[in-house]
Design a protein that fits this description.
heterodimer; A: alpha/beta; Rossmann fold; 4-stranded parallel β-sheet; 44% helix; B: alpha/beta; 2 domains; two-stranded antiparallel ribbon; 13 strands; 29% strand
């Protein structure tokens, strides 16, 4: 696909500005009515979904040309999909996120690159991860755990830790705990250890599609060779990319794909994970973009007019994983659960996505602080999420703003309440 | 003795991108790279690394020269940050519009070199990873009237002379040549050292001069000596045959016969 393939989408934008707001019938207060970090921070129409559609069409039509200023606007976007979900409430013939992704790719092809993204991609090519950490230390997080090595042994389940969980020391107990939950439930699990590599999804979002395809090829060959029937990942980014991006690139993984939250819900439902301890806290839940609106499966390319496309084939954001984490949190004894104002497909982004954390960390923190303020306004003691990137930026933002709210992973909560937590902690 | 080194740095689509990202547009006779960033031609990067080693060894002033219709500024900055002292950029929409052949490109580069106060050594990749023509180095040397040493893996400057190790089949040969000279470099010269992000950002301060074709007073509009007539992807056909047999041995023997008949063995 190229920008030209989305001409009708761009021409269809009526500049109604719905892409800037939570769908009107879901707004609960003026304070938390906005949905797009980019337009909310930079306050110029060009930064909105609509503004980028207009710029894209202008360039495609030869009325303007890509320059540093336009590229800067295109890159200052988390690609969170909130604009798309809001737009689809009113206009279901526009695939806004796809246009934003095409614009990124266009920037990369034309050499309008962000220095920080270049450094990230170079590090990715050297070390096979988004953090530039040494490749041969990727499997260190699983040290001492009784798990199979899928490079040498067959296993029913592949556990894909993802880049952030593999290296972030603050999240190490979480990823160890996620794996332990599977092992305690008697699942036949293997990991790729130091041979595991990035899913490539973030490279795709940065516009480096050729690099993303390389990583998809690598992942596909590893999964095929493993003989596994199921892939479980605690990384929301990876989950979304395996479900949508890989089939779209013609590299569908021949396994069932689960996010760890879905497995935890099944284990609890099947009696394989017992909730023994109460959690006397008031919890609220942040929907990660990549577990929510961005995790819808790939429905194939629609060749005819998008007005003829049935609702079941549209990426509206409504088919993401929303109930699963809430079901888990609501089932915890002793814990209360309260919703924020912006939830599910119209959730506010944590700020870390789309290469913003790498290139514009102040913007990422700004968006995260906005979300923490929303979480604190509910009176909750803890903000629970299910994505390592969200947690990283929330933890940093909470520390910087001196927030009282605790940042927790859904896995942490399951570990605490099941009593597996102690076993997960590293020595 | 400190030498003035010129390194040619062509921007090409990243050859490490997935092959499926490259699409052949036969109608317009060009290869379109989707989601592939421009990078410095890897062979030119090796030439640059060779220049940096000479600089480390005996001191040098390195000037990067790059020519193209839409040169990526971040790509130039990253290259400069690796250790260049200045850059001379020739950028003009006519370079793309006229689909220049190797000779026209060599004329541009030779004219750009002519703008410099002096040069002792020109280093460039043995070929560009997008065209694989391998003509620029010898052509520029011819236009400038300097000796040309090809396929170098190491170079050493001493007493106004250049000592080059040339790659030949299963061996290498040592060549001595007077300066000024032009050397084309193989990948065996090594990968370009990687600059830090801080250094890349700091490279904005390194002197850069930008010229258009009119500044070089070149007549490039005469018909090209080489013209691309057509461009198409090779037709690949895959057929799968199951070799059966009562036993593994029998199937293996049949497979060997088939492979022999097909000329594989």
């Amino acid at each position: 696909m190229s920008l030209a393939d989305y001409r009708a989408d761009m021409e269809g934008c009526s500049r109604c500005s719905s892409c800037k707001w939570v769908p009107y019938n879901q707004i609960k207060s003026w304070r938390f009515a906005k949905n797009c970090p980019s337009i909310c921070r930079y306050k110029l129409h060009a930064y909105s979904g609509s503004g980028k559609m207009i710029m894209g069409l202008s360039m495609l039509s030869g009325r303007s040309h890509l320059n540093d200023d336009i590229a800067d606007i295109i890159y200052k976007c988390q690609l969170c999909g909130a604009c798309d979900a809001a737009c689809k409430v009113y206009r279901d013939d526009i695939d806004l996120t796809e246009v934003l992704l095409e614009l990124r790719s266009h920037c990369v092809e034309q050499g309008f690159l962000v220095l920080e993204h270049m450094a990230t991609i170079d590090a990715l090519k050297r070390e096979d991860n988004m953090l530039g950490e040494p490749k041969d230390r990727r499997g260190d997080w699983a040290w001492g755990l009784p798990v199979k090595d899928i490079n040498r042994e067959k296993a029913d389940v592949i556990f894909h830790a993802g880049c952030r969980y593999s290296y972030d020391p603050d999240l190490r107990d979480t990823v160890r705990g996620a794996l332990l939950l599977l092992l305690e439930a008697g699942m036949d699990v293997g990991i790729a250890g130091k041979e595991e590599s990035c899913c490539g999804g973030r490279a795709y979002e940065l516009g480096y599609r050729g690099e993303a395809e390389n990583y998809a090829d690598d992942m596909l060959s590893r999964v095929k060779a493993s003989g596994a029937k199921m892939l479980v990942t605690p990384c929301a980014d990876g989950y979304a990319h395996f479900r949508y991006l890989y089939p779209r690139m013609g590299r569908e993984l021949p396994v069932e794909i689960f996010h760890i939250s879905q497995v935890i819900e099944r284990l609890i439902g099947g009696g394989n994970l017992r909730i023994r301890r109460s959690l006397p806290r008031l919890l609220t839940y942040h929907d990660p973009c990549h577990l929510g609106r961005m995790s819808e499966p790939y429905f194939g390319e629609w060749k005819r007019s998008k007005l003829d496309r049935s609702m079941s084939l549209k990426r509206s954001g409504r088919k993401g994983v929303y109930d699963t984490p809430r079901n888990i949190l609501r089932a915890l004894p002793g814990a209360g659960f309260v919703e924020m104002e912006r939830v599910r497909e119209y959730s506010w982004c944590c700020g870390a996505g789309g290469g913003v954390l790498e290139a514009y960390p102040d913007f990422a923190l700004w968006a995260a602080k906005e979300r923490i303020e929303e979480a604190e306004s509910t009176g909750a003691d803890a903000l629970v999420s299910a994505c390592p990137w969200c947690e990283r930026v929330f933890k940093d933002a909470a520390e910087e703003m001196g927030a009282r709210i605790e940042i927790l992973d859904l896995v942490d909560v399951a570990l605490i309440c099941s009593g597996v937590k102690e076993a997960a902690e590293t020595a | 003795m400190s030498v003035d080194i010129v390194v040619f740095a062509k921007q090409v689509p990243d050859p490490e991108g997935s092959p499926s990202s490259y699409h052949i547009n036969s109608a317009e006779r060009k290869v379109e790279a989707r989601g592939i960033p421009p990078v410095i031609n890897p062979f030119d990067e090796s030439a640059f690394e060779m220049a940096l080693r000479i600089k480390d060894e005996s001191g040098a002033h390195i000037t990067l020269i790059s020519a193209g219709s839409n040169l990526s500024r971040p790509v130039i900055l990253k290259a400069l940050a690796a250790g260049a002292d200045s850059a001379l950029l020739v950028t003009d929409q006519a370079i793309e519009a006229f689909s220049l052949d190797s000779l026209a490109t060599a004329k541009i580069l030779a004219a750009a070199v002519g703008r410099l106060a002096r040069f002792d050594l020109i280093l460039c990749g043995m070929q560009a990873s997008d065209t694989n023509a391998g003509l620029i180095g010898p052509m520029v040397a011819s236009l400038l009237g300097v000796p040309c040493v090809t396929l170098a893996r190491k170079a050493h400057v001493e007493g106004g002379m250049l000592e080059v190790e040339r790659v030949v089949q299963d061996a290498y040969e040592v060549v001595l040549c007077p300066l000024p000279a032009l050397v084309t470099v193989t990948g065996e010269a090594g990968e370009l050292r990687y600059p830090s992000l801080q250094a890349i950002k700091g490279a904005k301060e390194i002197p850069q001069e930008t010229l258009g074709l009119s500044d070089l007073q070149l007549d490039l509009f005469s018909p090209p000596r080489v013209e691309l007539i057509s461009l198409s992807a090779p037709q690949r056909e895959r057929r799968c045959r199951i070799v059966e047999g009562e036993s593994g041995r029998e199937a293996g023997e049949k497979l060997a016969v088939i492979l022999r008949e097909d000329g594989v063995l």
